[in-house]
Amino acid sequence: MPSTHNKDKPWDVPTIDKWHEPEFKQEDNISGQPFTEESSFATLFPKYREAYLRQVWGDVTRTLEKKGIACVLDLVEGSMTVKTTLKTYDPAAILKARDLIKLLARSVPYPQAVKILEDDAMACDVIKIGNLVGNKERFIKRRQRILGPNGNTLRALELLTQCYILVQGNTVAVMGAYKGLKEVRRVVEDCMRNVHPIYHIKELMIKQELAKNPELANESWDRFLPHFKKRNVQRRKPKVVTEKKPYTPFPPPQQPRQIDLQMDSGEYFLSKREKSQQADAKRREQREERKEERKKEREKDFVPPKEENEIKKNRRKHKRKADEP
Questions:
Q1: Per-residue confidence (pLDDT) for residue 285, from 0 to 100
Q2: Which of 142, 150, 139, 234 is nearest to 197 (CA)?
Q3: Residue 188: its pLDDT value, please?
Q4: For an engineered disulfide with 88, which of 68, 153, 258, 292 has Cβ 3.0 to 4.6 Å away?
Q5: Is the dihedral of CA 188, 189, 192, 195 positive or negative?
Q6: pLDDT of 149-167, one tens digit each?
Q7: Residue 241 Rama label (left phi>0; alpha psi -120 to 50; beta)
Q8: Residue 169: left if φ>0, alpha if ψ -120 to 50, beta else—which one?
Q9: Listed ranges 34-38, 44-48, 265-269; the one with the highest mean pLDDT
Q10: This prediction's pTM
Q11: Could you tell me if 276 and 267 are in contact, meaning their C-beta atoms sit under 8 angstroms apart?
Q12: Across 222-244, average pLDDT
């Protein structure tokens, strides 16, 4: 029997945005009572961010006070803390304040980071890329691919995904809609796995053009998207030819032990005092040899060059010796 509930509702019209989140105001808190428990979040920040955070912390405090959130900047421990107060009326405000301090710690400028407090489906994601590549040089090269020459690759990703992207150290901070965050995470993680971002950029450009055609809204786009084959060309290493030793069924001769060598040289029968005296004498000889070498090197600059008359005399002597029978 077909269902009788799947009927068109009079308010179900295409002009209504079902995903729109209206701003949560103080009047929406029907109970009007403060929260029963205090919620707090803390995050650490690097040393080089201390000067900037001290500069903008007054603006951060004033912005969070409007939401009823208290914030503390601890320069001794190098941490930022946000917590609810008796004036907090929005339950989600503390979560957005947590994202705010997280973005500030990852070098996102305050005018951009404060947009996370807006109720327009703005979200953030901090992608950790430090542990995806073991080799440091390879990690730096692949991280540079995300930026591209003169930052062109990063700018193209921002335009196609409608997100703000900041590459800093071992993380990539992203701000935007949830769909864009998902695309950026896929591009960044594939880039660190040696898949160039240009392939994803081509795919996103094609999807953007296909989305403009309403006839393809309910069809699969696989036939339009490019399918790149992985070509991993392995470079052959030069073969090192080693000479084979002649085969002998006998094992190699046994090497003498350390004690045997000391007994042959007579060192084994010396006392501790005699051994130390012998080692001191050896060090003294080496010191004298190095001293003589340094002295000769210094005296090289003071050796006078040979004069032309002496050179001519030496040549005449060699000629006379050669002419003599």
A1: 94
A2: 142
A3: 93
A4: 68
A5: negative
A6: 998 999 999 999 999 999 9
A7: beta
A8: left
A9: 44-48
A10: 0.63
A11: no
A12: 74
3-state SS, the chain, equals CCCCCCCCCCCCCCCCCCCCCCCCCHHHCCCCCCCCCCCEEEEECCHHHHHHHHHHHHHHHHHHHHCCEEEEEECCCCEEEEEECCCCCCCCHHHHHHHHHHHHHCCCCHHHHHHHHCCCCCEEEEEECCCCCCCHHHHHHHHHHHHCHHHHHHHHHHHHHCCEEEEECCEEEEEECHHHHHHHHHHHHHHHCCCCHHHHHHHHHHHHHHCCCHHHCCCCCCCCCCCCCCCCCCCCCCCCCCCCCCCCCCCCCCCCCHHHHHHHHCHHHCCHHHHHHHHHHHHHHHHHHHHHHHHHHHHHHHCCCCCHHHHHHHHHHHHHHHHCC
As given in the structure block, the two tokens for residue 281 are 């004498």
Residue pointed to by tokens 């390879």: 138
Q: Which of the four pLDDT bands, split at 50, 70 and 90, describes residue 1?
A: very low
